[in-house]
Amino acid sequence: MNSTDLNSTEIWAPYSQVFSTLSYQDLWITISAAILQLILLAALIRRETWTSPLESRTKKKILSYTNILLVVMVLSNLFLTVFNQLYGNASDPIHTVVYCAFLTFYTGLLEFLMMLYGYRRGLPVIQLLLPSIPPFLIVFLILFGILQISLLIFTTLLVISNYTTLLTSSTDLFNSAVNAQLMAVNASMLIFDVLVIGVYAMYLQRISGSSNNVEKLVILSRYGIASCVVLEIWQLSIVLYNIWTNAALPECSLTTYTILLRFYDLSPLVYLFLQLAMKWSLMRDDERTAQEKINRVVKAKAMATSESSGSERKSYLTASDCRPSGTIR
Fold it and tell me: Which of 55, 83, 146, 274 is the most exposed place for a label (fewest CB within 10 A)?
């Protein structure tokens, strides 16, 4: 090791220590948050399937598409954090390759599920404003999934090439392919999020100051915009992390690096809590709508009963007036 390498190692030492400490802390934060998220989701599912008004409850399913996506996203983020910790501490080549493969897999899975979830949630608003767009978005999602699979393959090959002479000559090729695909993933998520934010903003602008709005779509739009902003912050932190950590010398202060790692590790948790909050708001809106419907039915029945009773009394009085007059002996 020459003096340059030694100086570089010494300079990076505080950053490595911060990375190790924060990764361990964020691992337990993620585990705790994931347990809390699953408990909250179970409580929401129980409420909407068992304790909601009858007319709303009969249409709900425990294993709905949305609920399954939420559970898988929570678990994917949990496994991502676990394998990130294992990969960072791995020294054995085989373990390094395996942990890196799982880390890449769960990262790609989480990103794909986030995009799919955003599409599913935003579909009502998209169909309202841009009805011709959904088929193209489906194709976009399929291509994004293929891109994630390709990234998984090339990332695994890149790590393997660092430990075997058979693929050493292809290391630069794998590295270029991984970097290009990472850029494509980030660009794809940016394009999708900008599109979704634009659609939500258009809807909110259209119904601004108008009483003719659908509360459910307003909820979807507001939470959708917030979710996309969080996702873009997460993607930005990933890009900056990859750029700064691949440099020969640190390009940011230790404080900036610490903040960056927090955003990198914890942004998905913020996103998932937003989805749970949106589910709660949508459920409350469903309950309110169902209760209003029940109240209207009860009121209509009461009015019908009142009118029927009034008609019967009127008929009785009319019949009494037609009786012959006279004294009763």
Answer: 146
d(C-alpha 269, C-alpha 140), whole Å: 25
**Predicted local distance difference test score (pLDDT) of residue 209:** 67
Domain definitions of the chain by residue range: 17-49+60-285
Q: What is the pLDDT of residues 35-45, one digit of tens each?
A: 999 999 999 98
17-49+60-285 adopts what CATH topology? Rhopdopsin 7-helix transmembrane proteins (1.20.1070)
Q: Tell me the C-alpha distance between 105 and 111, whole Å.
A: 10
Matching residue, tokens 């700064």: 244
Burial class (CB in 10 A: 0-12, 13-18, 19+), 39: exposed
Q: Which amino acid is at 123?
A: L
Choose among 109, 97, 111, 106: nearest CA to 155: 97
Percent pLDDT > 90 in the chain is 47
Cβ atoms within 10 Å, residue 197: 19
Q: What does the CA dihedral 65, 69, 71, 75 come to, rounded to 10 degrees? A: 160
As a whole number of angstroms, the distance between CA 70 and CA 280 comes to 13
- Residue ranges of alpha helices (H) inside the chain are 3-46, 54-57, 65-89, 93-129, 134-161, 171-207, 215-245, 254-321
Task: Assign 3-class secondary structure to 235-256.
Answer: HHHHHHHHHHHCCCCCCCCHHH
**Gyration radius of the chain's alpha carbons:** 30
Cα dihedral across residues 251, 249, 9, 170: positive or negative: positive
Burial of 301-316, coded b for 16+ CB within 10 Å and e otherwise, reads eeeeeeeeeeeeeeee
**Amino acid letter at 237?**
S
Mean pLDDT of the 270-284 span: 93
Closest to 238 in 3D by CA, of 196, 186, 190, 189: 186
Other beta carbons less than 10 A from residue 210's beta carbon: 7
